[in-house]
Structure formats: C-alpha cells, structure tokens
C-alpha cells in the first residue's frame, strides 16, 4: 500500500514564502521588493488601461460564451502571438514553419517545450539542457520534472555585476554537441543583465557551430525597454539565421495578466522544402501532450490579449502602457543610483541603471539581505535581487538609506 506518511516534507517555495513573511510584517514602513509584479507609484497593482478597454469590449460581445477553446488555444491569439514575437513580416510565418499553442502562461510554455523535447529530442551523446547561472529558479524543477538533465553556464560576473561573456561562451562551446541552450530573450531574470547585439551574434554563431538547440524564454517583451522590437531582437535575429528553435512566451508582465495565465509556446523549424510537413508533425504531437495535460487552455486572458493584439488602436494604447511601466522602472533605477552615489555608499552603482527589466541584482550578500529585512523591513530574495517595480517615489529614499546602512 502507499504510505503517504513517508512522503518527505518539501521546502516552501522561497519566493512565495517571502511574500507571506512580508504580509505578516506589521511595520508601516515595510517595502516589498520580492515578487516580480509591476506596482504603480503607490505600490499598488496596476490594471493596464488597455486591458480595461479590452475587458469592456468583451463584456459587451454577445457572441462570447464559456465553451471550450480548441486544444491549441484561441487561433486569433496564437496567430497574433507569432507576429508579436517573430515580427509581422517573419519569413518563418510566411513559409508556415511555425506552430504555436496557447499555454498556461510562460510557465506552461516552458513546460510544454521541455516535455516535447524530453519525448522527441535525440542527441548522439549525453542529452543536456543548459541554463544560465543564475536563472529563473523554476527552470530547474520544470526540466527535472520531465526528466531532462541539465547543467548551467556561467552568466553573471560578480565583479562587474554584468555579463560574464567569456564564461558563457566557453561553457556553451564545451557543452556536448546538440545541447539544449536555454536563453532569456531579454530582461534576464534574476540579474537584469542581457548580452549586447554583438554578443548575441557570437552566441548564435557558436550555437550553430556546436549544433545546439536554442530554447528562448521570453517573459518581458516590451516591458524591458518599452519597445517591442528592441526586446524581440535576439529571437528575430536567430530566426533570420535560420535556426530551428522553440520559444516560451508569457503575457503575465507585459499585459499585467499574471493570474490569468496567458502564454504561448512556439516551435519554429528551419527553412527546408519539407518544413511545412515537419511542422505539421510537430504540431500533432504537441496537441497530444497538451490534451493529456490541460485538454485546452483558459480563455479569459487570451481573449484580452488577442483583442488588443488584433486591433490597431488598442495596440497603440498597449505600447503607450508599456512605456509607462518601463519608464517608471527606469526612473527608479536612475533615482536609486543617484541616491546611493550622493550618499557615497561604498561600492559602485552603475549596474543599477545598466541592468534592465523587472529586476536588479544589487550585489548585496545573503547576510546583508537578511539584515536589511530585520532592521529595515525591506523584503528581497536571498540572492540580492530586487524587483524594481516595488520602488516608488515614496520609498526609494528609505530603501537607499537602508542599503547604505547595511553596507557600512
Ligand atoms: N520565465 C521567466 C524568465 C520569468 O521571469 C517568468 C516570470 N516570473 C516566467 C518565465 C513565467 O511566468 P508566468 O508563468 O507567470 O508567465
């Protein structure tokens, strides 16, 4: 018989544990820099104005009902998602070399991709996936759960608080041929450090040479720089180079649809005379995996995103909303750096403005993170990552002083 009592206690998810600790803290000055969710200048969740407009339209649409979506999701949504991530004039779309399934946000897309690779991706020697060190912690458990072995490639340089390009390059070069290389398309989580376009080109050439398989995780398109094409550049460059690859796309951050779980998985095959046949086969297998796991994806979030993506007016409004979010975060980076530099806080602070996206890797040690939590009621993950969106004009000064105090 199954002895459920023998199931070992698993550790609490560190990030969600941190959120709970923040909620329990009665101190009015407390600052939440833990979870990666956008907050407005009053530390409140922000419903994008364009999302409200889309919701109004959906509410008044007499043709909507609660029927199941197709297994691959809402067709208008997946088609618009392809265009968004690959570019409207992408040769891959024209040549019908892409297949896309709506997923349970970005997490579900990473999972579906990993599951597909676990089942169908064959290599001559050891089959390994490579994640940046550090990476979004969930990558490890998602790949482990589907039985894909992984290693890491160096990514963050503790000295410069920037990219360890030589380390990245050497590890990808030395990985067994045909390794799965997981890449953050932009706004790397947790470091906020991205390769430059020149570095991306070198990485792409190396991946090609080693016959590796690129797996892009894109959770921040438009949210990072405020510009959809800029944040989509790396993926579009790889596509231009004719790579076969897959993409996990999330709408949690750039639409503020966190809890609605809107996302998309794309598989793109290389240009070839039989590419269309290949992609149909891939699509047929993905459909079976999707059916066995979720049957069909949830409708609400995808309908909102689809309404916006397919309407030129709403799309423009969305781009403006993206500028609001990314702009506020950039202002906070500038403010924080300035305050630390003005106080003469020991260390260098240029990385705060050079890093991009939701997060900054401050360089604070775990000891300092725990001390700042205890002394100043500032909550950040133990690796020293702060969610920039948790800072605002009311608390950035308090936070800078808390950092200064814990460092001196
Ligand atoms: N990948 C990365 C790198 C992320 O940062 C996130 C969001 N934290 C995700 C994927 C997916 O998040 P979600 O499932 O909420 O879309």
Automatic annotation (TrEMBL):
Family listed: Belongs to the class-I pyridoxal-phosphate-dependent aminotransferase family.
Membrane-spanning parts: none
UniProt cofactor(s): pyridoxal 5'-phosphate
Keywords: Aminotransferase, Pyridoxal phosphate, Transferase
Pfam families: Aminotran_1_2
Enzyme nomenclature, EC number: 2.6.1.1
UniProt subunit comment: Homodimer.
One GO CC annotation: cytosol
Keyword Transferase in annotation: yes
Protein name: Aspartate aminotransferase
Enzyme class: transferase
Further comment: In eukaryotes there are cytoplasmic, mitochondrial and chloroplastic isozymes.
Annotated GO MF terms: L-aspartate:2-oxoglutarate aminotransferase activity; pyridoxal phosphate binding
Domain Aminotransferase class I/classII large: 29-402
UniProt KW Transferase keyword: yes
BP GO terms, sorted: aspartate biosynthetic process
InterPro entries: Aminotransferase_I/II_large (IPR004839), Asp_trans (IPR000796), NHTrfase_class1_PyrdxlP-BS (IPR004838), PyrdxlP-dep_Trfase (IPR015424), PyrdxlP-dep_Trfase_major (IPR015421), PyrdxlP-dep_Trfase_small (IPR015422)
Reaction equations catalysed: L-aspartate + 2-oxoglutarate = oxaloacetate + L-glutamate
UniProt cross-references to NCBIfam families, sorted A to Z: PRK09257.1 (NF006719)
């Amino acid at each position: 018989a199954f002895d459920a009592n023998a199931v070992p206690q698993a550790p609490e998810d560190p990030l969600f544990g941190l959120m709970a600790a923040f909620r329990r803290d009665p101190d009015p000055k407390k600052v939440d820099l833990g979870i990666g969710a956008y907050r407005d200048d009053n530390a409140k969740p922000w419903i994008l104005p364009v999302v409200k407009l889309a919701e109004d339209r959906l509410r008044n649409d007499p043709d909507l009902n609660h029927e199941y979506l197709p297994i691959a999701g809402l067709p208008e949504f997946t088609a618009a998602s392809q265009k968004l991530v690959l570019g409207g004039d992408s040769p891959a779309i024209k040549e019908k070399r892409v297949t896309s399934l709506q997923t349970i946000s970005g997490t579900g897309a990473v999972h579906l991709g990993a599951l597909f690779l676990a089942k169908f991706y064959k290599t001559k020697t050891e089959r390994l996936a490579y994640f940046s060190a550090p990476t979004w912690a969930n990558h490890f458990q998602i790949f482990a759960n589907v039985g894909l072995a992984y290693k890491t490639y160096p990514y963050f340089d503790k000295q410069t608080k920037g990219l360890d390009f030589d380390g990245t390059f050497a590890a990808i070069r030395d990985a067994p041929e045909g390794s799965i290389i997981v890449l953050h398309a932009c706004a790397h989580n947790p470091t906020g450090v991205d390769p430059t376009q020149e570095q991306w080109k070198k990485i792409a050439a190396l991946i090609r040479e080693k016959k590796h398989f690129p797996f892009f995780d894109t959770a921040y398109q438009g949210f990072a720089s405020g510009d959809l094409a800029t944040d989509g550049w790396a993926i579009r460059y790889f596509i231009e180079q004719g790579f076969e690859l897959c993409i996990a796309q999330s709408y949690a951050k750039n639409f503020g649809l966190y809890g609605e779980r809107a996302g998309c998985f794309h598989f793109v095959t290389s240009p070839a005379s039989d590419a269309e046949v290949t992609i149909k086969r891939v699509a047929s297998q993905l459909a079976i995996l999707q059916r066995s796991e979720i049957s069909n994806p949830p409708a609400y979030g995808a309908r909102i995103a689809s309404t916006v993506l397919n309407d030129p007016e709403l799309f423009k409004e969305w781009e403006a909303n993206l500028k609001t979010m990314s702009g506020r975060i950039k202002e906070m980076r500038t403010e924080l750096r300035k305050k630390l530099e003005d106080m003469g806080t020991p260390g260098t602070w240029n990385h705060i403005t050079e890093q991009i996206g939701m997060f900054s890797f401050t360089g604070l040690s775990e000891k300092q993170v725990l001390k700042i939590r205890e002394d100043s009621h500032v909550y950040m993950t133990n690796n020293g990552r702060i969610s920039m969106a948790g800072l605002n004009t009311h608390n950035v000064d308090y936070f800078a002083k808390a950092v200064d105090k814990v460092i001196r």
